[in-house]
Every structure is written in structure tokens, then in C-alpha cells.
Recover the amino acids of this structure.
């Protein structure tokens, strides 16, 4: 259940009450694709990193270790030992981006596993069943995620099908939540708005899916090739038609500035691999901009990654040590930078919430908009 | 300073008082080659893993980031953030095992860096200077580590040279410890017994080096090709001639059973890459024997790695989850197994000390000797 605490302009301060705890929004969700955050970070580390929500990938877990095995092992909470809210995506995005030899029909999609090539069928019912087996807090609807730019006619037909798939998801989820053997009988379902960069298709699709009265609504199909300005424009256009009393999730976004801009436009939830992926390539986020820790200039630098940060890494280690670890190929380099970046993202959202609480989000947004994506 | 608390047979329970804290012996030293334990484990994790001593490699740190840089950064304690005792090896073992195109003369060894091939000279004075720059608690003498089997005549000449090198190490260390700019002016120096598998050469060398009244004595040149029985025999033979009032360190050893056997023969200190290297290959040590976590039989196993273990990993994660992480190529798999194995080794030594304290080491040794190296 979503509770809107207050607005500042279109920006929203709220909370989502779930069976696994309350999520303070705006919130960042930390990506743990295969049930672990990449970079040797475990559920034991997450509380200290201000994580509120862990996001796991349905497609990956279906292939390995298999969602039925995860169910036998007690579900994702038991398996990963994270006891807070977990969101699972629908598998759709990976089916359309990672898997090979796709074949899309009304029933669903047949595709070849990226691991061993074996043929798999996934439709709305299969995606709901897998997510029910995983026992996540929030399940995402199975949709077609099309690349930008896309043809208008194809996008329109795809939106229609994605709407029909959503109706099937809702029915299947209701059925699964009523079964005795289901791990989380209160699993929530979010619908996903599609429509590429076509205003009319986006609006029409949003109007139709809001009628289904789901637990939340995501904006999907963005950050897949279009410009940041196009993305912000879609948020402006779609935002007006999203229900006020449901959480709004912008999928797969983004840089710190993308997040500032999207919160400004009313988004409540985010997820992105950027903090972890960048960290593994020695790129760290700071309150003064981004640093590349491979840079020679850090070789004798005894400052922490970020002077303004109080994460466990910045409280203990120097830039010189972390640069040395990267140069020596030590895994610890990645772990330390992943921890820092995850903390940075979760703290960014915490500071956004504090600014909203204190009615100064506009100033916060204007101040950091010109700083956070800068390379220093 | 070494304090012998008690004996049980030849086994010794003692403590080594150092400027960075007291080491309870017998002790295992945890290998942090480049200043970090491989497997994404940091100094912040070590206390929880019952680590007493961190061991860093002189050769690696001399090449990268450079010992003079480490000195500028405040020494290894400041650099790695480990505030307990640190032992540095002399670089000798790596010069003789890793480096290419060696040329040994009375002055020292010229060799090519394994990183970029550039020519480097290292002799006793250079090794002491590097270790002084690193600021470790205990420095090891620069010696020639010869492979087994070795020719008698070569071994004899090598032992003579290693003795002359040791005298030069002692003089150089005294000089370095008296300098104003030295980080650790109380740096301790351990000598290293050599002599391959020749009893007479081992004994003669030990008798000569004990006269130098160093802070401790290591048995080197073992676990480099000879059988376990030959190693134990050398410990029997040399042990008689090692001073009672100095710590005894068996370098680079070994399996849990090797350690039980060596403690039985009076050894106080150990180091080995086995707990970390094995962990990275999914091999874990338990109180019932060794497991390979890639094994299919663990895929639905909800037990911890070791039912008898209370490490942070065993208190939280299942075999099924850890196997899944290995299969998915997640770094976290390595971190969790390294943490477990490091804890296991440090706990093994703790339990050895408890058994000695309670005069039941013989029973402890006889019980676990047949169990710990077994594959289960």
C-alpha cells in the first residue's frame, strides 16, 4: 500500500507498506541479479549500506538455480538472507535483451537461454508463476520491452499485446496468491507503461492500465537508446495520467542527475546497475562528481574516496590503497568501490527524502544537478 | 619477545609480545600478498575472522605500489588499516620462485620483475630496507630458498652464503632501526634455517644462526617438493637445536594435518595460502574434512558449510546458496568461502591453544589427525 506523505511541486515523499517492511520513497533498489549484489557484497552488508530494497532478476534465477529450487529452499528471502522488501522484474527485459532467437506470439515468447541455448517459453502466466516461486515482495508484469527508436505501428500493436498480457498477469497473480503452497500470499503486482517515445501511445496505454487498479505502476522501455531529454519528456507526459495513490517506478534509471530529474517529475522508485557496474570498473560517485580510481593522480592520495561520505569504506581506506588494489587485480578493490557506490546511491535518495521532508527539494535539485554527473 | 607459557611434550604454548600487540601461539598468519587477503576480504573483516597476524609479501609490494610509496603513505599498518602485528617475508622465496632470469652472486640476486620484466637487484641490505620502509612488525631475513631435491654440495655452499647474508641482514636492520625516519624502530628480525633435506646441513646451519641471537627462527625451504614425512623428519632433527626462548616459524605450511603435526613437533607460527586459494576454488575446510562446493549434491542443501562452525558465513548462508553463487560466477562465492576458511584456520589454532592450555593436545592431535585432510 502506498501512502503519499507530501508533495513539493510534482515531487512526492511517501512510503510503501509491504509484508517485508515499509519502503521510504523516493527509494533506490539495489540490483542483485542472481541473488547477490555483484562485487562480493552480501545481505549482511546491505543494512550498513542503507539499502531498503533488493532487486533480483527473474530471467537469471529461472535459468539458475531454477525458481522451483528457490521455492524448495524457502524463497528468495531465505535463500539470500535479505529480510527486507525484494522486487523481482518480470524477465521480459532480459528475454528481449539477453536471450537469443526470440519468437514472440500472443501466448508469450519462446527464446534460447544465454547460458546453454536450450529453448524456453515464457508468457504472462509463466512469469507470474516464477515470481511467485521466488516469493518476492513485488512482482513486475510481463511486458514487451522494445528498443528505441521503434516504429509507431509496431509500438502500437506491442502496447495492445502488453495490455492483454497485463490482464493475464493480474488474473494469474490472484490465483497464485490464493494457493496454500505459495510462499508470499500477499505478493504485489506492478504494471508497466510502454509506448516508446510516442506521447499518444504512452498516454493511452497508461490510461488503460491504471483501470486495472494494480499495486503500483512502472514506466518501462526508457533508458534504452533515447536521449535524457526524451526520457524526461515522457515522464512529463505520462506522469499526469499515473494514479496519485500508487507508487511510480522508473525502471533501469540511472545516473544521479537522471534520478534528481525523475524525482522532480514525481517518480518514487528506481533501480540501476550503474553503481555496481561502474564501481567494478573503478568509477566511483561522490558528492563532488565522479572519479576514476585507476588515475595515476591517486597513487599517493591519502584522502577517502569522498570527503563528504561516511560509508564504511570512506571511514577507513584511502584513495591510494584502493588504486593500488585495482592495479594489483585484487577483488577487494571492487568490493570497496561497490560498497561505496551502493551507499552513495542509497544516501542520495535519503538526502532527497530529507530535502522533501524539509520543503527544500527544489534547491537541492538545482544545486546537485550541475555537480553529480561531472567527471573530476 | 617470546614467552613460553607451557609445554606438552614438544608442543609449545606461548606468546610473542610485539609493538603491535601480543600474538598467542601457536598462531596462523593470514596471507595478504599485496596488502589484502585475496577474495575481497579487508582489514575490517579480520578481527571477526579471529586473525592475529597479517602476512604481506615484500617482493610484490616492492614492485607495486613500491615500498617507498608505502612508506610515504605511513607504512603497511596505515596503508591496509590492519593495526595488529604484520610479518613481511624477505622477498627471497618469490625471487627464487616467481621472478625470471635470476643471477645469484655474493652481493645478492639480480632478477626480472614478473610484472614488466625490468631488472631488479635485491640483496640482504635491500630486503631489510624494503621491509623497514613497509614498517612491518617482524621482518624475515633474506635467504636463498632452494627447491627439493637439491644437490648436497650446492646446498652446503648455499647455506654458507645464506648465513653470511643473515649477518648482513642483522647489521642492516640494527642500522635501520636507529634511523630517525624509520616507521617501526622496534622491527624484529627472524632468521631462516635452510639445508634442504640434509640433516647435517640443517643442524649445522641452525647452530650457526642461533648464535646470532635473533628475535625468532623460521624453518624455510620446506613444502617445496619433499614428502610430508621428510618435512616432519627435518622438524624432528632441527627442533632439538632451536632456542627454547625464541618463536619457531614453519614457513608456507600447510594443511590442517601438517599444522597439527608441526605443533606436535614444537612449531609456534605458520602461514599458508591454502585457506584462501582453496576457497577461491570452492574447496572449504570443515571439522569433518574438506568439501568441494561445486558438487551437485549441495544444490538443495540448506545446511551451513560446516555444522560445527560459528563463523559469520556459517551463521547465515546455506551450502545451496554458496554453490549457486559459484555456478553463477558471483565474486561473493569466493568471499564467503575465503572468510570461512580463514576463520577455520584461525579457529584451528585457537583450539590447539586451548587444548595445550588444558593439557590435552595429544588427544586433540590424535583425534583430528585422521579427519581434517579427508575429502567428504
Amino acid at each position: 500500500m502506498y501512502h503519499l506523505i507530501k508533495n513539493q511541486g510534482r515531487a512526492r515523499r511517501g512510503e510503501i507498506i509491504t509484508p517485508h517492511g515499509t519502503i521510504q520513497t523516493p527509494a533506490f533498489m539495489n540490483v542483485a541479479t542472481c541473488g547477490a549484489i555483484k562485487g562480493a557484497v552480501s545481505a549482511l552488508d546491505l543494512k550498513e549500506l542503507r539499502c531498503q530494497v533488493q532487486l533480483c532478476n527473474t530471467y537469471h534465477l529461472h535459468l539458475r538455480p531454477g525458481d522451483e529450487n528457490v521455492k524448495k529452499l524457502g524463497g528468495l528471502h531465505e535463500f539470500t538472507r535479505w529480510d527486507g522488501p525484494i522486487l523481482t522484474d518480470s524477465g521480459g527485459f532480459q528475454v528481449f535483451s539477453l536471450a537469443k532467437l526470440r519468437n514472440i506470439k500472443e501466448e508469450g515468447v519462446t527464446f534460447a537461454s544465454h547460458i546453454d541455448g536450450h529453448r524456453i517459453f515464457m508468457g504472462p502466466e509463466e512469469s507470474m508463476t516464477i515470481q511467485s516461486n521466488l516469493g518476492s515482495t513485488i512482482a513486475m508484469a510481463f511486458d514487451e520491452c522494445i528498443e528505441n527508436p521503434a516504429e509507431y505501428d509496431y509500438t502500437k500493436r506491442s502496447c495492445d499485446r502488453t495490455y492483454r498480457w497485463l490482464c493475464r498477469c493480474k488474473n494469474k497473480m490472484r490465483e497464485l496468491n490464493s494457493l496454500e503452497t505459495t510462499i508470499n500470499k500477499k505478493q504485489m503486482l506492478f504494471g508497466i507503461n510502454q509506448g516508446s517515445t510516442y506521447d499518444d501511445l504512452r498516454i493511452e496505454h497508461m490510461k488503460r492500465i491504471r483501470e486495472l487498479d494494480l499495486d503500483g505502476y512502472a514506466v518501462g522501455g526508457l533508458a534504452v537508446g533515447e536521449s535524457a531529454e526524451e526520457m524526461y519528456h515522457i515522464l512529463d507526459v505520462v506522469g499526469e495520467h499515473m494514479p496519485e495513490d500508487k507508487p511510480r517506478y522508473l525502471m533501469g534509471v540511472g545516473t544521479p542527475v537522471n534520478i534528481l530529474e525523475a524525482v522532480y517529475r514525481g517518480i518514487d522508485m528506481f533501480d540501476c546497475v550503474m553503481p555496481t557496474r561502474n564501481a567494478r570498473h573503478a568509477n566511483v560517485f561522490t558528492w563532488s562528481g565522479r572519479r576514476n580510481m585507476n588515475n595515476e593522480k591517486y597513487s599517493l592520495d591519502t584522502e577517502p574516496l569522498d570527503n563528504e561520505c561516511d560509508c564504511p569504506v570512506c571511514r577507513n581506506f584511502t584513495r591510494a590503497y584502493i588504486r593500488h588494489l585495482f592495479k594489483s587485480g585484487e577483488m577487494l578493490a571492487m568490493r570497496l568501490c561497490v560498497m561505496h557506490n551502493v551507499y552513495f546511491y542509497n544516501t542520495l535518495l535519503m538526502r532527497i527524502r530529507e530535502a522533501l521532508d524539509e520543503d527544500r527539494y527544489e534547491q537541492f535539485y538545482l544545486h546537485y544537478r550541475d555537480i553529480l554527473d561531472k567527471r573530476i
Notes: Residues 284-369 of chain B form one domain. Chain B has a mean pLDDT of 97. The interface with chain A takes residues 34-44, 60, 64-65, 69, 72-74, 79-81, 299-300, 302, 312, 316-318, 320-321, 324-325, 327-328, 330-332, 334-336 of chain B (CB under 8 Å).
